[in-house]
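Forum: Protein Structure Q&A
Topic: Joint prediction for protein chains with partners

I've read a bunch of threads here and the consensus seems to be that you should model interacting components together rather than docking separate models afterwards. I'd like to see that in practice. Below is the full input, 504 residues plus whatever partners are listed. Could one of the regulars post the assembled result?
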Amino acid sequence: MADLATYAFTGIGLFFFVAGTIGLLRFPDVFSRLHALTKADNLGLGFITLGVAFQVETWREIALLALIWALTLLAAGTVSQLVARVALREQNKR
Amino acid sequence: MTALSLFAVTGAVLIGIGFYGLIATRHFLRRVVAFNLIGSGLFLFFGATGARGGVTDPVPQALIITGIVVAFSASALGVGLVVARARLSGRAALPEEEDGA
Amino acid sequence: MTLAFNAALCALILAAALATILGRGIFRSIMFFIVYGLLMAVAWVRLDVVDVALAEAAIGAGLTGVLFLAAFGRLVREGAEAEPPRRINPPAAVACVGLTAALTWAWFSLPIPERPGPQLAEALPRAGVENPVTAVLLNFRAWDTLLESIVLLAALIGLWMLTREDDWRNRLGLPQHVRPGGVMSGFGRVLPPVGLLVGVYLAYVGADRPGGAFQGGTVLAAVGLVAAMTGLVRPPRISAPGWRAVLVAGPLVFLVAGLAGALLGTNFLTLPAPVAGGAIFVIEVALLLSVAVTLTFLVLGPPEGENRR
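Posted by a regular:
Agreed with the consensus. Here's the joint model:
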């Protein structure tokens, strides 16, 4: 049962990663690429974390997994803000 | 091919790639990056050697950690020199070579 | 399955390395180098050497990446980021293929040694710590680690010597401009507490499990950099005496411990078994602080003033 949940959730997570990567490669400008990247990767990592959480033994490890996900969200959100700001400045310059 | 051999050969190829970057590229910052590739390729080769014979030997591990820190401090100094040179001369790359020179 | 994963990982590492050397533009090269460092950390986990994986992820990918990006930014300010057109250099390529072939031949022809030697297993109970890597770093081969901490200091002094005369009294690194209340300053307030905890924990568990003063110090250095870049703290000046004291504390305590070992009847840098655990703890605390501050200053770079080109 736990294995099944792991397969299902990591599968969904991988789907989001693939979708995000395709978006990153195919979308026309920085902003839509950022949208694809952060949306898909944060959700993808979330689902993979959820899938892995079914395999661990203790609550402590689940808390660690959640912490990793939260920190990644924080970093990804900050970075995409900064990238978007630089891109906006470049656009206005032109 | 065992996993260790796989990583050792990868390390050997990385050393080759890094060495090519060090001698054949012209921008100094890329050369410092290439120097780091050689370093980590060497660490991988060495680390795989240390794991031969079943148990991982802690002595190579300790030496590799020392090596990573030393490579970083060398890179910091190298990068500082590249920036200082760019400030003095306005460039950070070797000049274009004449053909046949 | 395992072999397939390892092979895919090695292929990715080699692809990232090739892109680092052959990719167009220096910025791309740096990006691929960071990716390469993270993949390398995974490779170390696969080889079951977690201590090295931590060091590689923190220093190899993290700090070195920031260092290169900061240098790239400075080169852009000087207008020196452009690369002359690149051509393939056949003799160099042949030489490098030869080098790789020679190393590969060496791997397959060298005899497989019996490891680890019996001496280490015998000596480990006397080391004062459980983690064999920490035992080697801070006790059995303390000589290397002492010199390593001095190399760090020497690199920093060398970097500071590149400071221009006018900038000597300025604060370290480039002046940072951060909008108060913006995303960046918010990030700078959320991350440092977590980073401090992780860094100290890594150094603390290093005695018994993977981790140690260098890995923990790197995480603390990352915290210092985030704090400086987000405007949470202002970097000190070179002349600040307190920070200078922290820089030399690690090597100094290490050296004093080594001399004490010599005076107590064992040899220089050989810690006597009854006090080894305590001595290693004191050395690790001093090293942790010195490594963290030295690495932060190395990445911040020499002082630079405003209004340069």
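Chain B touches chain C through 80 residues (CB under 8 Å).
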